[in-house]
Amino acid sequence: MRPNRPVYLDNHATTPVDPRVLAAMRPWWEENFANPHSVEHAMGREAEEAVEAARTELAEVVGAEPREIVLTSGATESNNLAIKGAARFAAGQGTERRRIVTLATEHKCVLESVRDLAAEGFEPVLLPVGPDGLLDLDLLRREVDERTLLVSVMAVNNEIGVVQDLEAIGGIAKTAGALFHTDAAQAAGRIPLDVGAIGADLLSLSGHKIYGPKGIGALYVRRRPRVRLAPLFSGGGQERGFRSGTLPAPLVVGLGEAARIAATEALLDAGRIAGQRDRFLEALRAEVPEIRVNGSRERRVAGNLNLTFPGPVDAQAIMAAAPEVCVSTGSACSSAAVEPSYVLRALGIPEAEARATLRIGIGRFTSPADADRAAAALAAGWRQAMAGARG
C-alpha cells in the first residue's frame, strides 16, 4: 500500500476486492480461460464446474438452492430483471394484478424500473418512510391487496443503512398473493439472509458490495412455487433462459469466494466494523458535538453512518477540505445529480441539512488508525468549510 494513501470510508459504493478473492480468480484468467459453456472439451468442463461451485457458495449465503441462482452483471441488472421480468411475464399471461409497490427510498434502478412499467399499463405505488427510514407496516398492509402483483423493498438502504423488517414485509405480500422482491446488495454479508424465512420470491445480489469483483451479481428466483420471468434480452438461453450471455468465469469464481468468506466471517466482520464505527463517531463528536446520525440507530448495519454536520456548511466543501478521506454524499449511482439526496428528503430532512450530509461506509479493512485519522480530517474539514461559508 502506497504511503499517505487516503482513508477509504465509501464501502457502500464499493468494497475492495478481498485478497483471497483475487487469488481465487487469478487462475481463471491465466491458466484456464475457457468458456464455461464449451463443455465439449476438458477445459470448458473444468470452467463450468468452477462456475457451479461458485453458484453453490452463493446459494448458501441466502439459504437457496444452487439452481435458483441466476448469474447477472450486478444488482442493477438483477433488479431490472426481477421487476420488469415479473411484470412482463404476468402481463403476457393476462393478469389483472397491475400494482407494483415499492418505497420512495429505494435504489434508483428499482425506482426507474417501476416507473418504466407505468408506460406498460402498470400502477406504480411509492410508499413513504418514517423519519427513521423504516416502512410503516400498517401502511403497507393497506396498500397491498388483490390488485398487487409485486412488492419490492430494499433489505438495507444504501445511503442510511437501515434494515427493513423483511419477514413481516414478505408475510404481507404473501397474504395478498403478491410476489416479494428485495434488493439485498447492501445486506449480504452484513445481516443474516434466508429466502425461506423472509418469504422472498426474488432477491438481488452484487459482487462488489461483498468484497468481490465488479461486473458480476445474481438474482435468486424461487422454484417452488415457481416464479416466472420474461428475460430482458435475447440470446443463447443461458441461466435457465432468464439471462443469456457468456458467463465470465473468473468473476463468477470471485463472487463465489466472496460469498464463502461472507458466510463464514460475517459475525466477526460485523463486530469489528461496529467497533470501528463507534470509535470513529466518538472521535468525530468530540470535535463536532452537534453532528447528527440519520436513520434508525437500532435497525441499521454495523458499518453505516449517515451524518449531518451542523452550521451553514455544504458536504462537498467538507470533502474538498479533507481530501485524505474517501466518503460520499449519497449513492454513487446518483452522484452526478446536483440536487440533495432524495433518500434524505424522503426522511423529511430539509434541503439545507441534506446538503450538509455525508455517507460513511466502514468496512472489513478499516483499522482503528483509519477511524482516528478520518475523524480528525473530517472535523478539520468541517471547520475549514464553516470558515469559508461565513466569509
UniProtKB/TrEMBL annotation:
<keyword id="KW-0663">Pyridoxal phosphate</keyword>
<comment type="similarity">
    <text>Belongs to the class-V pyridoxal-phosphate-dependent aminotransferase family. NifS/IscS subfamily.</text>
</comment>
<dbReference type="InterPro" id="IPR015422">
    <property type="entry name" value="PyrdxlP-dep_Trfase_small"/>
</dbReference>
<dbReference type="GO" id="GO:0008483">
    <property type="term" value="F:transaminase activity"/>
</dbReference>
<keyword id="KW-0032">Aminotransferase</keyword>
<dbReference type="InterPro" id="IPR015421">
    <property type="entry name" value="PyrdxlP-dep_Trfase_major"/>
</dbReference>
<dbReference type="InterPro" id="IPR000192">
    <property type="entry name" value="Aminotrans_V_dom"/>
</dbReference>
<feature type="domain" description="Aminotransferase class V">
    <location>
        <begin position="7"/>
        <end position="373"/>
    </location>
</feature>
<keyword id="KW-0479">Metal-binding</keyword>
<comment type="function">
    <text>Catalyzes the removal of elemental sulfur atoms from cysteine to produce alanine. Seems to participate in the biosynthesis of the nitrogenase metalloclusters by providing the inorganic sulfur required for the Fe-S core formation.</text>
</comment>
<keyword id="KW-0408">Iron</keyword>
<keyword id="KW-0808">Transferase</keyword>
<dbReference type="InterPro" id="IPR015424">
    <property type="entry name" value="PyrdxlP-dep_Trfase"/>
</dbReference>
<dbReference type="Pfam" id="PF00266">
    <property type="entry name" value="Aminotran_5"/>
</dbReference>
<protein>
    <recommendedName>
        <fullName>Cysteine desulfurase</fullName>
    </recommendedName>
</protein>
<keyword id="KW-0411">Iron-sulfur</keyword>
<dbReference type="InterPro" id="IPR016454">
    <property type="entry name" value="Cysteine_dSase"/>
</dbReference>
